[in-house]
Write a structure and sequence with these properties.
Layout: E1 7-8, H1 18-24, H2 34-51, E2 57-62, H3 65-76, E3 82-87, H4 90-101, E4 105-110, H5 119-128, E5 134-138, E6 140-141, E7 146-147, H6 153-159, E8 163-167, E9 186-188, E10 201-206, H7 208-215, H8 228-235, H9 250-266, H10 268-288, E11 302-306, H11 313-324, E12 326-327, E13 329-330, E14 339-343, H12 351-366
Parallel strand pairs: 1-12, 3-4, 3-5, 5-8, 8-9
Antiparallel strand pairs: 2-10, 6-7, 9-10, 11-14, 13-14
Length: 367
């Protein structure tokens, strides 16, 4: 088995540093070994720093980002609950589906794909559905590249006695994200985007209001594997010590430990500034090629652009892969065949990669 070495500039995964790959190959320990538990505790503490939270229950769910989505949903929703989900792309749509599977009555607040939601729209949604116990919103909509502002949202949500749940899969470690300052009650992400770790873990964080909701449940969590009432006994211990739940992905925890170490060595503010600078560099180059952005408020980590007239989507992406070893993403849903998605995430957000993909596109489109 000899996988090719690609330059991953799509919607994820992102390029993984050699340091992280070396950590992945370290000797496997038992999931209750004291040395492993120390490593795991350090991962949880570093995640708090990256999420910018003091939430004790901050840990990596065993599974990719969608496991984090399900973990938040199944623990905070009971059958019959009313919830609001903001839908402006694939992952808002998916959140709606997951919450419906939990037995919730989901009120979809929808807007055009590529647009973001205003505080006025969200206030109106709560006015129309005052019994809603939770609102779910995507901070970084990977399917469209839209960057949703979150400041000021918690005041509206809390005024209605609801919880604020956020999808930060494509923003954690690459965009400003302040869980405590912004009043986020529950949040999930993925390791394979701006953290530049292989896919396989989903960092989550639950605040005090979310824990109170879980403690007040009248029904069992529908997923045994993702039941936080049991998981918290393993990740946080307590007076009774660690309680075995499932065999943790030991080596992936090593990899995440190293990836988070790299993030904090660079400095969170510096890392966010780097993503912003690389986005601006790419944007300027794309606009010189006549390529326009789809979202009005674009992510720095994921750039979604219109495919120019006369260019064949699949042909251009195939040439990028075969001739330059570059992967970019195609459009999803109604944007299929109409958009390209260029990721500048984590280890891949560099001047070299920006200039390389611009030069490659210039050559291919020139043909």
């Amino acid at each position: 088995m000899h996988p090719a070495e690609r330059i991953l500039l799509g919607p994820g995964p992102s390029p993984v540093p050699h340091r992280v790959l070396r950590a992945l190959s370290a000797p496997t320990l038992g999931h209750l070994d004291p040395q492993y538990l120390t490593i795991m505790d350090e991962v949880c503490e570093m995640l708090r720093k990256v999420f910018q939270t003091k939430n004790a229950l901050t840990f990596p769910v065993s599974g990719t980002g969608m496991a984090g989505m399900e973990c938040v949903a199944v623990n905070l929703i009971e059958p019959g609950d009313e919830v609001i989900v903001c839908v402006n792309g694939v992952f808002g749509t998916r959140m709606k589906d997951v919450m419906e599977r939990c037995g919730a009555t989901v009120h979809a607040l929808e807007t055009t794909w590529g647009d973001v939601f205003t505080l006025e729209q969200i206030s109106a949604a709560f006015a129309a559905h005052p019994k809603s116990k939770l609102i779910g919103i995507v901070h970084a909509e990977t399917s469209t590249g839209a960057h949703q502002p979150l400041e000021g949202l918690a005041a509206i949500v809390q005024a209605h006695g609801a919880l604020l749940a956020v999808d930060a899969v494509t923003s954690l470690g690459g965009h400003e994200l302040r869980v405590d300052d912004w009043g986020i009650d529950a949040i999930y992400s993925g390791t394979q985007k701006c953290l530049s770790c292989p896919p396989g873990l989903s960092p989550v964080s639950f605040g005090p209001r979310a824990l109170a909701r879980m403690d007040a449940r009248k029904t069992k969590v529908q997923s045994w594997y993702l039941d936080v009432s049991m998981l918290r006994k393993y990740y946080t211990g307590g007076g009774g010590g660690r309680v075995y739940h499932h065999t943790a992905p030991i080596n992936m925890t090593y990899a995440l430990h190293e990836a988070l170490t790299i993030v904090l060595e660079e400095g969170l503010e510096a890392r966010i500034a780097r993503h912003a600078a690389m986005h601006q560099r790419l944007r300027a180059g794309l606009e010189k090629l006549g390529l326009g952005y789809i979202p009005k408020r674009s992510l720095h980590s994921l750039n979604c652009i219109h495919i120019p007239a006369g260019a064949d989507d699949a042909t251009v992406r195939r040439r990028l892969l075969e001739e330059y070893g570059i992967e970019i993403g195609s459009g999803l849903g109604p944007m299929a065949g109409k958009a390209w998605r260029i990721g500048l995430m984590g280890h891949g957000s560099t001047v070299r990669n920006v200039d390389l993909v611009l030069a490659a596109l210039r050559t291919i489109l020139g043909r």
